[in-house]
């Protein structure tokens, strides 16, 4: 269940739906998002948005700042996608790096 927190203003349905649609893109990686928490903070004319999402094999944390809240949400989504891509492909990169192809053994019969 997505939890969105903001102290300075009310989170409208439009903001909630934008955040939900952005986080749905993370589901492409077939990873369970556990307790996603989004915090929206206003710092003068800027919006700061932070997210903390637990995974079965780690945690994602990202933050973004922008004058436009929707732009900050998109930037946050891009950062989360980048982190999630790293986490999901980390194990496959290690497996490929550790794979050593055996060289065929040559017998003396074939050596000329």
List keywords for this structure.
alpha+beta, 112 residues, four-stranded mixed sheet, single chain, 2 helices
- Helix amount, in percent? 25-40%
Count of DSSP strands: 4
CATH superfamily: Ribosome hibernation promotion factor-like
Radius of gyration in whole Å, from Cα? 22 Å
- How many domains would you count in the coordinates? 1
Q: Please, what is the average pLDDT?
A: 85
Low-confidence stretches: none
Strand content: 25-35%
Tell me about the biggest sheet? 4 strands, mixed
Tell me briefly what this model is.
One of its GO terms (biological process) is negative regulation of translational elongation. The protein is built from two helices and four strands, in the order βαβββα.
Description:
The protein has 112 residues and is α+β, with helices and mostly antiparallel strands. The chain has a single domain (3-96), classed as 2-Layer Sandwich (Double Stranded RNA Binding Domain), CATH 3.30.160. The protein contains two helices and four strands. The protein has helices at 13-24, 69-98; strands at 3-6, 34-43, 46-55, 58-66. A four-stranded mixed β-sheet has the order 1-2-3-4, with helices on one face. α1 packs parallel to α2. The termini are far apart. The model has no long low-confidence stretch (mean pLDDT 85). Keywords: Stress response, Translation regulation.
What topology emerges from the helices and strands here?
Layout: E1 3-6, H1 13-24, E2 34-43, E3 46-55, E4 58-66, H2 69-98
Parallel strand pairs: 1-2
Antiparallel strand pairs: 2-3, 3-4
Helix pairs in contact: 1-2
Organism: Shewanella mangrovi
Pfam families: Ribosomal_S30AE
Protein name: Cold-shock protein
